[in-house]
């Protein structure tokens, strides 16, 4: 594969949408024109249907169990990875993803308390050694996350979870980020301009180290 896969992660309201846009603009400035933008869950017709099932509050008047949620997220992910991301990388395009596997480790492993070993098993079976080249984790507190998302109005099925759910999710993100040098943490509680300049700094540093042909 010749393209690179960069992922933006974080709690809702962390600023992932803005960050994805910034990364794509920066890559364009470096002359990398073929960049595709993905989101998870979603990004293929089947994955978008699964996204609706995961997010809607009333699903056919039936409660979504934690394992069903996890499996729907992996079903969506494997559709996206096999049908969109891998082919794009193989033809040399770069992919900027709004969330990927780390979200399941954090939300379902941390928030929902599903055994991390089970999630790792699913990941290995379904994705093998496929993983992002770089993940930028935008770290905010659950309190700030709630403040920012509540401003938007109606909350979805996961957004209505408790503060302790999001605290466990954030803690899992932080634990995993500190264990893996391909995950970089950005303090996203700062004002937008500061977060953006830190994002630029980290991407520039990474491009210098791993993509010497660019700079
Ligand atoms: N989910 C899961 O559980 N497991 C999985 O494996 C996957 C997902 C893949 C869909 O996510 C849901 O699925 C999500 C996790 C779960 N549910 N929850 N809860 P999503 O990515 O589609 O939805 P989201 O995370 O809720 O997106 P978002 O809220 O739009 O977050 P964002 O993109 O990070 O934020 P934003 O749109 O860039 O910013 C939100 C607002 O905050 C906006 O008004 C900004 O102006 C403001 N903002 C952003 N940054 C700042 C700073 N620095 N200062 C002040 N204000 C700011």
UniProtKB/TrEMBL annotation:
GO terms, molecular function: ATP binding; dTMP kinase activity
Residue sites binding ATP per the record: 10-17
UniProt-listed Enzyme Commission number(s): 2.7.4.9
Keyword Repeat: no
GO biological process, one term: dTTP biosynthetic process
UniProt xrefs under Gene3D superfamilies: P-loop containing nucleotide triphosphate hydrolases (3.40.50.300)
Keyword Nucleotide-binding found: yes
A GO cellular component annotation in the UniProt record: cytosol
Catalysed conversion reaction: dTMP + ATP = dTDP + ADP
Residue ranges occupied by any Thymidylate kinase-like domain in the UniProt entry: 8-197
Function: Phosphorylation of dTMP to form dTDP in both de novo and salvage pathways of dTTP synthesis.
HAMAP family on file: Thymidylate_kinase
Name the UniProt record assigns to this protein: Thymidylate kinase
């Amino acid at each position: 594969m010749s393209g690179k896969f960069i992922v933006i992660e974080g709690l809702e309201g962390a600023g992932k949408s803005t960050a994805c846009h910034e990364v794509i603009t920066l890559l364009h400035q470096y002359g990398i024109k073929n960049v595709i933008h993905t989101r998870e869950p979603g990004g293929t017709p089947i994955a978008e249907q699964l996204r609706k099932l995961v997010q809607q509050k009333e699903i056919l008047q039936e409660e979504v169990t934690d394992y069903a949620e996890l499996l729907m997220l992996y079903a969506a992910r494997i559709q996206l990875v096999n049908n969109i991301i891998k082919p794009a990388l193989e033809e040399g395009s770069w992919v900027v993803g709004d969330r990927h596997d780390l979200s399941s480790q954090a939300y379902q492993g941390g928030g929902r308390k599903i055994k991390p070993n089970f999630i790792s098993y699913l990941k290995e079976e379904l994705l093998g050694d496929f993983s992002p080249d770089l993940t930028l984790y935008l770290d905010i507190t659950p309190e700030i996350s709630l403040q920012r998302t509540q401003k938007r109005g109606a909350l979805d099925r996961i957004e209505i979870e408790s503060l302790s759910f999001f605290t466990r999710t954030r803690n899992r993100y932080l634990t995993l980020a500190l264990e893996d040098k391909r995950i970089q943490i950005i303090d996203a509680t700062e004002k937008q301009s500061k977060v953006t300049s830190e994002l630029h700094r980290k991407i520039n540093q990474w491009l210098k180290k791993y993509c010497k042909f660019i700079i």
